[in-house]
Amino acid sequence: MSASAAARGLPTSARGRDSAPTRVSTRPWIEHWLETCRDLSELKASHPMMDAVIDEIDGRMIRIGDHWLADFASCNYLGFDLDREIIDAIPAYVDAWGTHPSWSRLLGSPVLYEQIEERLTSLLGAEDTLVLPTITHIHMSVIPLLAASGTIFLDARAHKTIYDGCQVARARGAAVKRFRFEDPEHLDELLRAERDRTRLVCMDGVNSMTGNAPDIRAFAAVAREHGALLYVDDAHGFGVIGERGPNESSVYGSRGNSVVRHCDETYDHIVLVGGFSKAYSSLLAFIACPTDVKDLLKVAAPPYLYSGPSPVASLATVLAGFDVNETRGDELRRVLCERTARVLDCLARLRVHTPNRSGFPIVEIPLRDYNRIGAVGQMLFERGVYVTLAAYPLVPKDEVGFRVQLTAANTDAEIDLLVAALEELAHRGELQPARGSGTPWLEAAA
Ligand SMILES: Cc1ncc(COP(=O)(O)O)c(C=O)c1O
Fold it and tell me: For 51, left (φ over 0), alpha (ψ -120 to 50), or beta?
């Protein structure tokens, strides 16, 4: 024992080999996480576009301190958050129902819920639907129920909330196996080799990073062939994409009734999850499933039994949103598609890489050097462009960059600002060069 260590009274485990003591943390759990998230927390501490306080909005312009920026980080794709018809519809509901029902749904469900589920079921063309406050609540409670003690096949790049739902299922006895992103053949291989008879496949609809939709027809065919249930989270597709037809206003299709209808699929062996917190600008989410599954969830899913409900203003926003979707939704989707095309056309012209090949309004733009994220974000901020920074470890290092989301409420002038900033970044060599032909969006649209 070194004399100096003994003199300081340090426990054996806290001493180095010589006299230098090793500091013993009393909170190793927090140090572990601080180290894991170091890049992100340094960025959060130093960057005006991380953890920002928004002081005021004016349309899609936002004010942070004395700085006005065009907002390209909003998921209010249809602009319902700013829609006068929807805003004006809310007070009558609050007058009639108060601000908040307070009961969990099992204890007492205002009839507004029944109205929402009826309209939603008809819009989706599903057998039935159940609404709960958020998609996260649904993943955490429904995935473990559907998986039971069987096997989950999880998309390797599934959204974190799906992954977390699978972790809960695993803790309750399910096995979890991962299949490669966008690879139905790999899923087929894994299912073919599986002996467990309870099989649940979990994946995203429109992907929150790439902006692309999976080949639902191929995945559904594999799931059906192997007696598996396909569970799809279309948080970003619901309200934006929908059924195809000769009179559609854009490649997004019509009615915004989500990825299953967009891919001309049925709900046979498919459970669809979606939310109103993006395209419908409200706090509510849904699961489309057979009625016997809905009945089970009403007694077995904790958010139905115990969670506080969505505020009345949110329920009102959804009901008014259905009306606007019916009358003006396809026109808003046309505008949204056009705005997005301006950005994608700009990237194609600059020969800059984006994984988006769908034309849907999520445009990820990775950097050539991941260390430049702070500087690039600062430059965008100074040019008045607000985006979502995709930092490590939220994404792999070769995908570090920023994500642009378009909404129908963004103006042409705001997109001019964005296009000018993208041109500057491309000319400075900050962005990754296009791969292949460099115009995947134009080819897909052709
Ligand atoms: C794909 C996906 N699923 C789920 C969520 C979470 O949704 P909610 O806020 O309804 O829990 C998000 C939010 O960004 C998402 O992108």
Answer: left
**110-159 residue pLDDT tens:** 999 999 999 999 999 999 999 999 999 999 999 999 999 999 999 999 99
Q: Which ligand 1 atom is nearest residue 277's CA? A: 10
Phi-psi region of 83 (alpha: psi -120 to 50; beta: other; left: phi over 0): beta
Please give the backbone phi and psi of residue 81, each rounded to the nearest 5 degrees, phi first.
-60, -25
Most informative mutation of 277, 287, 307, 405 for ligand 1 (most atoms within 8 A of CB): 277
275 in ligand 1 pocket by Cβ < 6 Å?
yes
More confident of the two residues 161 and 16: 161
| C-alpha pair distances (Å), 300 with each of 117, 145, 167, 399 | 19, 8, 18, 39
CA–centroid distance, residue 283 to ligand 1 (Å)? 11
* pTM for the full predicted model: 0.91
Dump pLDDT digits (tens) for 79-96: 999 999 999 999 999 999
Best residue among 159, 166, 206 to mutate for probing ligand 1, ranked by most atoms within 8 Å of CB: 159
127 CA to centre of ligand 1 in angstroms: 23
Residue nearest to atom 7 of ligand 1 (CA): 135
- Please enumerate, as own/partner, the contacts of 40-47 that have beta carbons within 8 Å and a separation of 24 or more: 40/391, 40/392, 40/393, 40/394, 43/373, 43/374, 43/377, 43/389, 43/391, 46/374, 47/374, 47/377, 47/378, 47/381, 47/389
Q: For residue range 161-193, what is the model confidence (pLDDT) as tens digits?
A: 999 999 999 999 999 999 999 999 999 999 999
Q: Is the CB of 278 under 6 A from ligand 1?
A: no
Per-residue pLDDT of 324-354, as tens digits, reads 999 999 999 999 999 999 999 999 999 999 9
Query: Does the beta carbon of 259 sit less than 6 angstroms from any atom of ligand 1?
Result: no
Ligand 1 atom closest to residue 275's alpha carbon, by position in its atom list? 10
